[in-house]
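Changelog excerpt

This revision adds worked examples to the README so contributors can see how folded entries look when concatenated. The first example is reproduced verbatim below.
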Amino acid sequence: MKRLNYAPWLFLAPFLLLFSLFTVWPLIHSMFLSMQQTYGPGRTEWVGLHNFKFLLTDPLFWKATSNTVKFAAGSLFIQLPVALGLALLLNRPGLRGRAYFRLIFFAPSLVGMPFVAMLFAPIFARHTGLLNKTLNYFVSSWPIDFAWTQNYVMSALIIAALWMSAGFNMVYFLAALQNVSRDLIEAAEIDGAGAWHKFWHITLPEIMPIAGFVTLLSVIASFQLFELSYIMLNDSAGPDNRGLTIVMYLYQTGFEAGDLGYASSIGWVLAIMLISIALIQRRILKRHEDR
């Protein structure tokens, strides 16, 4: 009779215990909590799917979703092209000081999101902000008290996130560009292909898997936006909730209003959104690979 080897399970036991305690159990508990309504410590009422039904008609949730989608769109259509452009520039063999430029662009990603928020809040300040001071210096008619974080909340947040994340995504694109086949590029050059044709027909298809991975990371990070907007807007959602995000609304509902049940339902809807986005992107990339 074959003896059961317990050694692997013994080594896996610490991980399985911690994973069950801090991941599996909270997920199961939050699922049941999303079907309850809480009124404070120890006061709960079973409401079934009422939280999810109310969420579908909650104007604040859709406002938060709209703001989050705008921020994610800014990350995709501004941040990623900038990161790819920096990677293409720094991947040039003849560029002097490439290592220093890579470090300079990557360095902002080493700091935390709260630090970035505290750094950019004074830049967009209404009266003494660096941006208003600079614009007023070059354009004397510019209103020095222009409120960037009130009139253009998402634009300010996208700029702050761009400064922090562009260099991080640049590293992924650099790694992908360095794996592009030189034989294909040289063959295209012999055939007389220009820079744009080489990029569109050779470089872009070669880096598409990494581009898809970076896109997914950016979308997930965008939908989890909280610290940047919360700190830049002085612990609030800004005027007319222009800076309200899904995670911020979850925080306000669960920890400020005390309704952990409704907050759990928001969290599960957010999880479903991210899983759906990941599955759609995977299907798109698979179709691209099958061509």
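The second example, added in the same revision:
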Amino acid sequence: MSMRQQARTQQTHSVEVRQVYERVLAGASVRSRHVEVGAGNRVHLLEKGAGPPVVLLPGGAGSAGFFLPLLNELQGLRTLAPDRPGQGLSDPIDLPQHRYRETAVAWLDRLLDTLELDATALLGHSGGGMWALWYALAHPDRVKRLVLIGPPAVPKTRCPLPIRLAATPGVGELLSRLAPPSPKSVLRFAHHAAREKATLAGYPDLVDLLVAGSRDPIADRVARAEIRVFVSPFALLSPSGFRRRSRVRPDELRQVAVPTLVIWGEYEPLGSVSVAQAVTELIPNARLVVLPTGHGPWLGQPGQTAATVADFVR
């Protein structure tokens, strides 16, 4: 076995993740494939349709499969949704805390090169929204339109208590042992951290995918590392929990040079609609759409979310 094969074997996702992902995709209208980004690093992505391209970046604890209710509704676009590094079926990469932002931007840049997308629309949810925003700031020439759904580390957002607990050294590990990943614990987390318990419960396959991801050592390690980039180790002593240096500053938002759509849930746990309004006002060419949802608007409002995105991107 070559060194590359050995390295790939050591970072293979669990059998449970692969089996659940395969079952979730069985009835979906998307194509699943891997692309190689850089030397030996594979990225798994879901792809559908034809038209103007849009790349969807999922949040920190979810694979691209979590976007399926949205992907199934999007029409008239070429949609590409990658599993971010270490999530879903994508290989992990080294994401050092002191260069996390630069590494994320470089990974996305290589992915767009591999997909031969000189310019594209970008949609990011939660932590994926931060990746999309960082990339738009670094490479505005490659981003035609930007859609941000519940980006966490922007001015005046707060960090939900479950996220702060998960990021606190020792506490997160203890909670995982006391309440190991299960459909019940995932739905409880969705209630407190995303205000989407009732809507998520309507997608049992997605619940199973989240459970499998939480049990997968690679995905769990990556998700915890990302949380700790954004949240202070002393989060319980902080009113917000987000590291000051991880936030996108107001002066950076004023430099966003691409048309931007901010989608915000009326019950978003990151903050009230006034928080989203303040962020939208800082971005020169931005507009805000508020939906009667929590942190994952396509779970309860898949058709309305898809129509809002498609109208903006096309």
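Reviewer comment on example two: Confidence is low (pLDDT under 50) at residues 1-10. The longest strand covers residues 42-48.
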